[in-house]
Amino acid sequence: MAVHISTQAQKDLRELIAEWHKMLPAVGNLNEAEEVAFEVRCIVAEQVFELGLLDITGKASYRGTTLSCSCGETKHFVDYRKRWVKSMCGETQIERAYYHCTGNKHGEGAKQDAPPWDQEQGLTRLIGTPRFKAAVCRVMGVVPYSIGVGLVSELCGVSIEESTAEGIMLEVGPRIRAMEAQRVEQVKLHIERAMEERLMVDAPERAPVKPLETHPVVGERLYLGMDAATAHIGGGWHNVQHGIVFNVKQDKHGKDTVFQREYTAGQMEMETLGWRMRTLYETWQGRYYKQRIFLGDGAPCNWKIASELFPDAIMILDFWHVSEHLGELSKELYRQDDEKQKALGKRWVDDRLSALKRKGPKSLLRALKRRRGKTAAQREAIRKELHYITANQARMEYPAHIAAGRMIGSGPVEATCKSVTGGRLKGTGMRWSIDGADATVAVRVIILNGDAGRLADYAKAA
């Protein structure tokens, strides 16, 4: 429950400060006034924090002579023990009741439960409060640790080591992942129950499924897209999978533009990414949009997920992916060490892409079938391109998509990779552990999705 200072109390405090301020030396400029105000804020905040803790620590933290231990045995009150607590208002030391269990499991290496007061307040062995940890995550999810610790110190007046900041991220990130896994299971259960209802299956009476938190439907189209970006993780370069769901509004030319969006990202199997995307689809109430559109590159795994989890979506192959394919083919067909040949190759690609937008994939297929490679390498390159276009022909009806104002390029998907992974994991010289990268991506996605206010909940120990 939030604690609010009454209007009268605020008035009394301001009068007290005004009287006390008369004892301070006069400031000479704006900067000095701000420095004094910041120092006073830190002193007052820390003092109020310490006084507030006096009411809930010490003997107030006593919960009886014995309590049930998580191991199934009984733990006994021992004494009052000290610990440090670091908050947005400063760092202070408190005493709280400590309990110890002598059960066999602890003799075998199981850790003792945290003191009851620590558990109630959501504290772990790291000294930060949930709110302080959330603030650290908001900073470290955006900038490198070396810069972030300085920002935390400057903004909060509380010092923190890089190792502590990393430890906080490694606590919060897995809790975000656990929440994501719960949401996926919740969606699977919803789908299962809905299928039983459609098939009129007689099922035993069960507890109702918890409703999903959903976004309001805006506009007529919901887009889905997936892509991967690489980062140096676990000693080598590895893929980080990304997904985005977004709705759109039309610009003055009737073309779709991104309006609201939500990301998911992490190192994961494609099946896991697919179900995370389906979870986003359900929370964005995809079934209530007139059109669902799946944008992807030529990777078969993308279309496998799309066909299995979004079978009624309009499938569109990223136009720029086709452009890259034709660009590579032209390098094989036209000599790159000859400027005239190189220019002819570029013109050939431009003509093919222009025709593709105006006439669709059949025009491109006809053009490729007319080509006769002069070498075995050229003939093989043409064969591969024909296979690629044929396999994706149904996803390349660009004239119809352009006329309807639909997106044909995966710009928002590419931007997802740059915003999530490129913006945090791929700084100069950055090398990540598997756990460190995943925790950072998990926190960063929460921030980019506009849910940073929930970080304090994830920072609070269960």
What does this entry look like structurally?
The protein has 462 residues and is of the alpha/beta class. The mean pLDDT is 93. Helix 9 links the parallel strand 7 (291-296) and strand 8 (314-317). It contains 17 helices and eight strands. The protein is elongated, with a radius of gyration of 29 Å. It has four domains: 37-121, no CATH class; 129-212 and 435-462, no CATH class; 221-318 and 409-431, Nucleotidyltransferase, domain 5 (2-Layer Sandwich); 320-404, no CATH class. The longest helix is centred in the middle third of the chain and has 37 residues, at 162-198. Helix 7 (162-198) crosses helix 16 (434-448), helix 8 crosses helix 9 (300-309) and helix 12 (361-370) runs antiparallel to helix 13 (376-392). Strands 6-5-4-7-8 form a five-stranded mixed sheet, with helices on both faces.
N→C terminal distance: 18 Å
Share of residues in strands: 15-25%
The oligomeric state is single chain
Number of structurally distinct domains: 4
* Rg of Cα set: 29 Å
> Which class of secondary structure composition applies to the elements?
alpha/beta
**CATH class of the largest domain, anyone?**
Alpha Beta
**Helix segment count?**
17
Q: Order of strands across the widest beta sheet?
A: 6-5-4-7-8
Average the pLDDT over all residues and give the rounded result.
93
CATH topology of the largest domain: Nucleotidyltransferase, domain 5
Order of helices and strands: HHEEEHHHHHEEEHEHEHHHHHHHH
